Amino acid sequence: MNDTPKSPEHPDRGWRNFYGRRHGPTLNKAQKDYLDEDLDSLSPGAAVDWDANPERAPLDMQMRFHGKPVWLEVGFGGGEHMIHMASTYPEVEIIGCEPYMNGVAMLLGKIRKLGQQNVAVHPGDARDVMDVLPEASLSKAFLLYPDPWPKARHHRRRFVTQEHLVPLFRALKPGAEFRIATDICDYVRQAVQEVPKAGFVAQFCVPEAFNHDDPQEVSGDWDTAWDDWISTRYEQKALREGRKPHYLTYRKP
Question: Which of 68, 84, 132, 202 is the most buried (most CB within 10 A)?
């Protein structure tokens, strides 16, 4: 029996709580054109769509990605990092998930301008993609400046909960890397506590001065960005406002 809750509007479709914005200020004509003309062809595959695949059968990775290594970026924002990585690693295919349509439109504009070929775009919840990724099919994953949900009662909405981490762990190959970047010290606390519970192994040392009950800004090897990192608009905003970035690397054993 399928115990997935059903949407009242779409009783044949699985349903999950979603928190956050779907739309922002009005899109300009060019952005609307990107969504109308380019988005469908960049889909990871029909299997992601609940209407096309209500049983959540696995995505055919060979047909869509032709045997190339596949990476996943959860919440790509305006797409700066995703485009940078796709350009830097043309031999890799990158799936980006982003429910905020203004950000999706921004990424599509970058893709069209640069003619980037090795990207796939899902304009929605990353959980829908993780549903249909075959086990051990991803070579790397990114969670970069995710929504911090600062109020304590909202911490369960953060990505670094078992609801998200367990399916991500399943989809990653042994040895695959999971990168997290955040400027929120309490997000670091929750990541340090929750990510290993899903099976990931930290590739950094938690500083002794870091207080898990009352997290504070401390220095450690999580202060150093990755060699292929590009600073995003979210990071630049954090730096302007005096918050220190943290770069956490985990690996699936």
Answer: 132
The answer to whether 51 and 12 are in contact (CB under 8 A) is yes
pLDDT at residue 153 greater than cutoff 60? yes
Tell me the two tokens of residue 88.
């830097």
Question: Where along the chain do its domains lie?
Answer: 29-251
Q: Where are the alpha helices (DSSP H) in 116-161?
A: 126-132
Q: How far is CA 94 from the centre of its chain?
A: 11
Distance CA 161, CA 187 (A): 11
pTM of this prediction?
0.89
Residue 211 CB partners (closer than 8 Å, separation 6+): none
Residue 165 token pair:
């981490």
Cα–Cα distance between 125 and 16 in angstroms, integer? 9
Q: Mind listing the pLDDT tens digit for each residue in 217-241?
A: 899 999 999 999 999 999 999 999 9
Q: Residue 35: is its pLDDT beyond 90?
A: no
Three-state secondary structure call for residue 234: helix
Q: Is CATH 3.40.630.30 the right assignment for the domain spanning 29-251? A: no
Strand-strand pairing, 201-202 and 172-182: unpaired
Six-digit token string for 193? 């506590």
- The structure tokens listed for 166 are 């367990």
For the residues 202-222, what does the mean pLDDT come to? 92
Residue 228 near residue 162, CB atoms below 8 Å: no
Q: Are 92 and 78 in contact (CB under 8 A)?
A: no
Q: Cite the active site residues.
A: 147
What confidence score (pLDDT) does residue 24 get? Answer: 57
